[in-house]
Design brief:
This protein is α+β, with helices and mostly antiparallel strands. It has helices at residues 2-24, 45-67, 72-85, 129-139, 148-156, 170-185, 191-197, 260-265, 268-278, 283-298, and strands at residues 28-36, 105-111, 116-123, 144-146, 207-212, 218-224, 245-248, 252-258, 302-307, 313-314, 321-328, 334-338. The protein contains 10 helices and 12 strands. Strand 11 and strand 12 (334-338) form a beta hairpin. The chain binds aspartic acid. Aspartic acid (ASP) binds at residues 34, 204-206, 224, 226-227, 236-238, 244, 257-258, 260, 263. One of its GO terms (biological process) is proteolysis.
Length: 339
C-alpha cells in the first residue's frame, strides 16, 4: 500500500516538475509575409500600417498559443491561417493568378519532433491550404498531395470547399495583366527566357511561420499562391520539404520566401539546417551564409525565417525587403519590412 502511494506521489511530482520546467523554458515564434522588391516609395504610410498591424496580429496570436503551453505546430498553424485569410499577402485570399487566370496554392507544415510533414500543391478549392497540409500530415499516410486528389482528400476530411474566385483580388488581377503584357513583349524568346525576364515582383510573395514551444519542439509552416502567371502546373519551393520548409528538433525550423526555383535547386531550408547540424555552427550564421552568399552567387533572391532549439530567431534576406515579425518569450513583438 505504502509503496503504491510512494509511486503515485513520485509520478505526480514528476509531472509537476515537467510542467514547471516547461513554463520556464524559452519559446519563440517568427513569421514572414514574403520577400521582394518592396519599394518604400510604392507603399503609403496607411498601407505600411496595415501590413504591420496584420503581421503583429499573426505573431501575437501564435505567441499566445505558445505562452499558454500550446505546441509549436498549433502556433505556426494559427499564425499562417491568419495570414492566409488576409488579402495583403500572396497566400489564401490575395493569392496571385496563374497564366490562365486561376489560383493554385501550395503549402507545407513540418513537425520537428517526429519529422512528420504534410504538403499540398496546386490547391484550387480549399480555403486554408495550411490546414489541409496539416491534415495530410496527421490523417494520411502520405507527405504530399497534388492536383485533383487534394480536393478529394479535403472532402474526405469534411473540409468545406470554396470556389476558386474566393482567393481573387483586383490588385493581383492587375499584376497578372501586367505580367502577361511583359511576357507577350518577350514572346520572341523562349518561355523560360520570358519568365526569367519578368521583374522580381512577379516571382514573390508567401507567408510562413516557425516556432519553438515550451517543450522544446520546433515546427515550420509555409503557404503561398506561388508566382504570378505561372503555367503548366508549376509548383514552387514552399511545399517541397527541405526547400521552402523544414524543421528538426534540436536544430532548426525554417520557412522560406523567394524565387522558388532557386530554393528547390539549392535545397535552401535543409542546407541551412544541415550546416548548423554538421558544422556545429549557430543557425543564424548558416542561414546568413546560405541566403547572403550561396543564393546571392547563384542569383536567387529571397529570404528565410529561422528559429533554433534555444529560441534564437534570425530572418536574413537578400531582397530589398521582407515582411516579417518575431516574438520571444517575455519580450514584445518586433515587426519589420526593410533592413
Ligand atoms: N517561394 C514562392 C514560390 O516560388 C514564392 C515566394 O516565396 O515569394 O512559389
Amino acid at each position: 500500500m505504502k509503496s503504491m502511494y510512494c509511486a503515485a506521489l513520485a509520478l505526480t511530482l514528476g509531472a509537476i516538475s515537467t510542467q514547471l520546467q516547461a513554463q520556464q523554458n524559452p519559446f519563440s515564434i517568427a513569421i514572414h509575409g514574403g520577400a521582394g522588391t518592396i519599394s518604400k516609395a510604392k507603399l503609403t504610410p496607411a498601407q505600411i500600417a496595415q501590413y504591420e498591424a496584420k503581421l503583429a496580429e499573426a505573431v501575437n496570436a501564435g505567441y499566445a498559443v505558445l505562452e499558454q503551453g500550446g505546441s509549436s505546430l498549433d502556433a505556426v498553424s494559427k499564425a499562417v491561417t491568419i495570414l492566409e485569410a488576409s488579402p495583403l499577402f500572396n497566400a489564401g485570399v490575395g493569392a496571385v493568378y496563374t497564366y490562365d487566370g486561376a489560383h493554385e496554392l501550395d503549402a507545407a507544415i513540418m513537425d520537428g519532433k517526429t519529422l512528420n510533414a504534410g504538403a499540398v500543391a496546386s490547391v484550387r478549392h480549399v480555403k486554408s491550404p495550411i490546414q489541409l497540409a496539416r491534415l495530410v500530415m496527421e490523417e494520411s499516410p502520405h507527405v504530399m498531395l497534388a492536383g485533383a486528389g487534394v480536393e478529394e482528400f479535403a472532402i474526405a476530411q469534411q473540409l468545406p470547399l470554396v470556389t476558386n474566385d474566393h482567393f481573387s483580388t483586383d490588385s493581383r488581377y492587375q499584376s497578372l495583366l501586367k505580367a502577361k503584357e511583359k511576357l507577350r513583349k518577350n514572346q520572341k524568346h523562349s518561355h523560360q527566357a520570358a519568365v526569367e525576364a519578368l521583374p522580381l515582383d512577379y516571382k514573390y510573395g508567401t507567408v510562413g511561420a516557425v516556432a519553438l514551444d515550451k517543450s522544446g519542439n520546433l515546427a515550420a509552416a509555409t503557404s503561398t499562391g506561388g508566382m504570378t502567371a505561372k503555367r503548366y502546373g508549376r509548383v514552387g519551393d514552399a511545399p517541397i520539404i527541405g526547400a521552402g520548409t523544414y524543421a528538426e528538433n534540436g536544430v532548426c525550423a525554417i520557412s522560406a520566401t523567394g524565387h522558388g526555383e532557386y530554393f528547390i535547386r539549392y535545397q535552401v531550408a535543409s542546407d541551412i539546417c544541415a550546416r548548423a547540424k554538421y558544422q556545429q555552427q549557430p543557425l543564424a550564421k548558416t542561414a546568413d551564409v546560405v541566403i547572403n552568399q550561396v543564393l546571392v552567387e547563384a542569383g536567387g533572391s529571397g529570404g528565410v525565417i529561422a528559429v533554433d532549439a534555444q529560441g534564437n530567431v534570425s530572418m536574413p534576406f537578400n531582397s530589398e525587403g521582407m515582411y516579417r515579425a518575431s516574438r520571444k518569450s517575455g519580450e514584445a513583438a518586433v515587426v519589420a519590412i526593410w533592413k
